[in-house]
Design goal:
It is a single chain. The chain has 11 helices and 12 strands. By secondary structure, it is of the alpha/beta class. It has 2 domains: 192 residues, Isopropylmalate Dehydrogenase, CATH 3.40.718.10; 119 residues, Rossmann fold, CATH 3.40.50. The strands form 2 sheets. Strands 2-1-3-12-11-4-5-10-8-9 form a 10-stranded mixed beta sheet, with helices on both faces. Bound molecules: 3-isopropylmalic acid (IPM) and manganese (II) ion.
């Protein structure tokens, strides 16, 4: 397996190192080989050279089976530059049309939802990742004047929603939840009567090919209520790009915060290159102190393995993570884990033999 590694900025390289440590150990136990290539993209490089993704970068990344990203973000780089120039650019250029965000409360991890347990909080959000308001369609009229008009257009294509919906149905089938296979489309059909009507009609059509999956629907505002009140209701959620961005951060909070949440930007097509990352960001104030939580980063590696042809290794890493959160860590907050960053990595490696 060929993995491109973008350690990135701040604590990105520290948590990436722990994820690679776990990859190395699990590859030996599961009997596969891998090689990594480092890429220095991120805020640090941008400040030095002025480029974000140099010529040929995307082609070089495409030569790999998957990309692992630690974190990008630098206090001296204005907001939006790296988000647009790196993260969104890669999603578009590599056509990573699925954004996958498991919302899973690991054992021993504190959730702000009173009385909810790991059994209650265990669902997955499948977010369309290339269209909607993220497509960058819009403009200004009379910019900077009192009469200024700004537009930002949400676009949805039949192809874009169909490929996402189909993938979500197949994912729900494979996940095979013993409580029943349920896919909930989350949208706003009562107000977005054009764009989300396209989603709704496509959903009903595609659903016919997956009769074993319950094709369910929630408006996005109601979904926010249920995620807090009855998270156990959900199995898989499929949603549009913008709504998906918002509800997945709500999801990250109920699963214990940014120290544990991981995600994938997936191009599931033959030869597609997908990218996996912890959601926490570069956390500049913790950089270099060996206190940041690597659990999200290690979980992102588990997802990479799961989605890149090593599901058994991915499952093993996930079980090891759950063993460590459940029995070895005091908290998921940076500096309060009861262990350093590298020690948590070592604990996961040790647990690989026990699970
Ligand atoms: C995410 C992030 C990105 C998004 C930002 C950093 C562009 O919030 O992956 O959810 O909005 O999609
Ligand atoms: Mn987000």
């Amino acid at each position: 397996m060929k993995i491109a590694v973008i350690g990135g900025d701040g604590t990105g390289p520290e948590v990436t190192q722990e994820a690679i440590k776990v990859l190395d150990a699990v590859s030996k136990l599961e009997g596969f080989t891998y090689e990594t290539t480092d890429f220095d993209f991120g805020g640090e490089r941008y400040l030095k050279t002025g480029d974000i993704l140099p010529d040929g970068a995307v082609d070089a990344l495409k030569q790999h089976d998957a990309i692992y990203l630690g974190a990008v973000g630098h206090p001296d780089v204005p907001p939006g530059v790296l988000e647009k120039g790196l993260l969104l650019e890669l999603r578009f250029q590599l056509d990573q049309y699925i954004n996958l965000r498991p919302v899973k409360l690991y054992p021993g991890v504190e959730t702000p939802l009173a009385g909810k347990t790991p059994e209650d909080i265990d669902f997955v959000v499948v977010r369309e990742n290339t269209e909607d308001m993220y497509a960058g369609i819009g403009g200004f009229l009379k910019k900077g004047t009192a009469d200024e008009v700004a537009s930002q257009t949400a676009i949805y294509t039949r192809k874009g929603c169909e490929r996402c919906l189909r993938w979500a149905f197949e994912f729900t089938q494979k996940r095979n939840n013993p409580k029943g296979k349920r896919l909930t489309l989350v949208a706003k059909t009562n107000v977005l009567t054009f764009g989300h009507d396209l989603w709704w009609r496509t959903y009903q059509e595609v659903a016919k090919d997956y009769p074993d999956v319950e094709a369910d629907y929630n408006h996005v505002d109601a979904c926010c209520m249920w995620m807090v009140k009855n998270p156990e209701y959900y199995d898989v959620i499929v949603t549009t790009n913008m709504f998906g961005d918002i509800i997945t951060d709500l999801g990250a909070m109920i699963q214990g915060g940014m120290g544990v949440a991981a995600g994938g930007n997936i191009n599931p097509d033959e030869g597609g290159t997908s990218m996996f990352e912890p959601m926490g960001g570069s956390a500049p104030k913790y950089t270099g102190q060996n206190v940041i939580n690597p659990i999200a980063a290690i979980s992102a590696m588990a997802m990479l393995l799961e989605q890149s042809g090593q599901p058994s290794a991915g499952g093993r890493v996930l079980r090891a993570v759950e063993h460590v959160t459940g029995t070895k860590m005091k908290s998921q907050a940076a500096g309060r884990m009861g262990h350093s960053t590298t020690e948590v990595g070592d604990l996961v490696v040790a647990a690989l033999n026990e699970v």
